[in-house]
Amino acid sequence: MNDDQALIAAQEALKAWGVEMSPRLIKNRENIVLEAASPDGQRAALRLHRPGYQSDDAIRSELWWSEALVAAGMIVPQPIRTLAGEVLATGGPRVASLVTWLEGAPLGEGGVQLAMAPQAQADLHEALGAELARLHLASDAMERPEAFEREVLDLDALLGEDPSWGRFWENASLSEEEAHLLLTCRDKLRAVIGAHAAADGDFGLIHADALRENVLVQGDDVRLIDFDDGVFGFRMYELGVAMSQNWDQANEADLGGALLRGYASVRALPENAAALLDAFTVMRAMASCGWVIGRYADDHPAVRDYAERAIAMAKRFV
Which of 83, 106, 226, 295 lies deepest, with the highest CB count within 10 Å? Predict the structure, then answer.
């Protein structure tokens, strides 16, 4: 769906909320996201969901989760119901949802060095660690409805023969030697993460996509947005995702330490948290190397970009 088609579809979808306006396109990627208005005129975010990614029930589960987090005292986007009292509008070319707008600027951008002073970077990562711990505490305390549906990202889904995000060692841009390196890295990751799983490593609902653009900065606080990738997964994977864009920063170790320190101020970490953070950070790079397979043509620059990051991180890890 191109930008013009997205705007037309968005205008049509907003009728389910009784809203007549021309929304502003924010991003046209997997989900199409637009700035719109709620029925009472407040700023809101309209999402046109990517067909075939999440089922309607899985999207409803995500929105139920958001409401439950708000009820638990967290500040996250929550659904705005249609005139029919539903959280989804399903009559258009794409399923649509409308959620409350959160103010704030993204923590940063992937592939771009963080701009703020090093101490500010560390302070915000400490705040992020604490916010993720609060998310996990609140999620564990919820009594989920029977119809609650989210993917399970366990050891096999991460590192099995058919990982959920794709067989990363089969990225089309890899040489035979590079593919072998990623398979070697996969074996080492299976050993580390497998031992964590065997020891009943902390596992439950996670945001699973706490990248910089999904972390809004509000003064000294941070807020999470875009729960579309939320899954049942390893809690340390959550922290690895947050670190995966910091892998080439000179202060990577300081940021990782701050993230762990913030998390531990709210919720207990495993004894080997630093080693697990390293492993799950690399794990996210491997997953992303597989994620591009089938989403881009084999010769698209993004396919090689993700592969090169995975190769660099695998060399360091192995």
Answer: 226
